[in-house]
Amino acid sequence: MTLIDSDPDTGLAPLEFTVNRNLQAKSAAEREQILANPGFGTSFTDHMVDICWSVGGGWHRPRVQPYGPLTLDPAAAVLHYGQEIFEGIKAYRHADGSIHTFRPDQNGRRLQRSARRLALPELPVSYFIQSLRELIAVDAAWVPSGDDQSLYLRPFMFAKEAFLGVRPAHKVGYYVIASPAGAYFKGGVQPVSIWLSEDYARAGKGGTGAAKTGGNYAASLLPQSEAYENECDQVVFLDQDRNVEELGGMNVVFVYKDGTIVTPQSDSILEGITRDSILQLAADRGHKVEGRAVSFDEWRQGVASGDIVEVFACGTAAVVTPIGVLKGKDFLDEQPTGSLALSLREELTDIQYGRREDKHNWLVRLDG
Ligand code: PLP
Ligand code: COI
């Protein structure tokens, strides 16, 4: 796997944000009650970032404003043609109270790649990182300090021009909202069960699979419901050649008995930053790591023969979660679980929470 490189637009002057404080911000007591048991994606902080873009004006009117509903023209292009992209990144509180995020340059660059594919404007990476800092500057108290807790940041961008012609919109909004987060799966790091989607694909060759765009997730909802009906936690997608792609919201990683770590790689899979980081940590330990096509048969046969000794899912929301069961219409394969997934998870989270040396300089401080 090639490791992705660093911020291309250092030197750009920062934006000058206007900050409108939320006069109806939650009280400290209300906030603490939410932070005691945040769940995932259900509560939001007091503020949000809002930056406009237009063909003539570029990026303008950068604001931090009270969290609240957006006013949209019913003809806004996003509502009709789905021109939208987003990111997911977390802010972690360290034991000394400071707040850090993890490899934000990579999320910023991925947002640019997604923008290119969806014909949206590319937000400079330095503006992306600044937008996270501006939100943390007013909502720092929302970064929880409990075990495995974080503030999940959700930057997103969409076409807001009122126009029904099918072409890239001339007016776009970029926003960042934030949501305190605990474990993504109810069971924490217990192994999850995966349903094989046989009737539905998530992405196709030349499609939008590698972009983080709402339509990919919309396409995953029906097969995800099928997974729930079959008592599985998540759904796995194959491509047209029956190679393994990824889960609805996570990448997949296989561990082989000789210690090699393999993750499916193709133009239609989202390039996960958690996956990239886990593979780097494994390579640092001396594991051979490979990004290549993995056929579904290789997965099943590898598990049956004992060549594959662990399978796990990874992503920002779910961190690293072992896969315990793979289920399809006419089979159920127990998956081998070992200790590598959890040990890599521990190493990664130790870095993110400042408990271990950050040898790759992945952390970026967001407060102060
Ligand atoms: N694949 C999909 C479809 C995702 O939504 C995510 C989550 O963002 C990932 C993979 C993992 O990406 P990352 O590790 O950058 O969060
Ligand atoms: C993330 O991990 O950031 C994602 O976007 C995945 C989503 C299913 C919450």
Automatic annotation (TrEMBL):
Name the Pfam families for this protein: Aminotran_4 (PF01063)
InterPro entries assigned to the protein according to its UniProt record, in alphabetical order: Aminotrans_IV (IPR001544), Aminotransferase-like (IPR036038), B_amino_transII (IPR005786), BCAT-like_C (IPR043132), BCAT-like_N (IPR043131), BCAT_family (IPR033939)
Required cofactor names:
pyridoxal 5'-phosphate
The reaction(s) catalysed by this protein are: L-valine + 2-oxoglutarate = 3-methyl-2-oxobutanoate + L-glutamate; L-isoleucine + 2-oxoglutarate = (S)-3-methyl-2-oxopentanoate + L-glutamate; L-leucine + 2-oxoglutarate = 4-methyl-2-oxopentanoate + L-glutamate
Q: In which pathway does it act?
A: Amino-acid biosynthesis; L-valine biosynthesis; L-valine from pyruvate: step 4/4; Amino-acid biosynthesis; L-isoleucine biosynthesis; L-isoleucine from 2-oxobutanoate: step 4/4; Amino-acid biosynthesis; L-leucine biosynthesis; L-leucine from 3-methyl-2-oxobutanoate: step 4/4
Gene3D superfamilies, alphabetized: 3.30.470.10, D-amino Acid Aminotransferase, subunit A, domain 2 (3.20.10.10)
Q: Which residues carry this modification: N6-(pyridoxal phosphate)lysine?
A: K212
Which key words are in the record? Amino-acid biosynthesis, Aminotransferase, Branched-chain amino acid biosynthesis, Pyridoxal phosphate, Transferase
EC no. given is 2.6.1.42
Superkingdom classification of source: Bacteria
UniProt keyword DNA repair, yes or no: no
Q: Name one GO biological process term.
A: isoleucine biosynthetic process
Q: Offer an example of a GO molecular function term for this protein.
A: L-valine-2-oxoglutarate transaminase activity
By sequence similarity, the record places it as follows: Belongs to the class-IV pyridoxal-phosphate-dependent aminotransferase family.
Q: Which NCBIfam families does the UniProt record give?
A: ilvE_II, PRK13357.1
Please report the name of this protein according to its UniProt entry. Answer: branched-chain-amino-acid transaminase
Instruction: Report the source organism.
Output: Microbacterium trichothecenolyticum (Aureobacterium trichothecenolyticum)
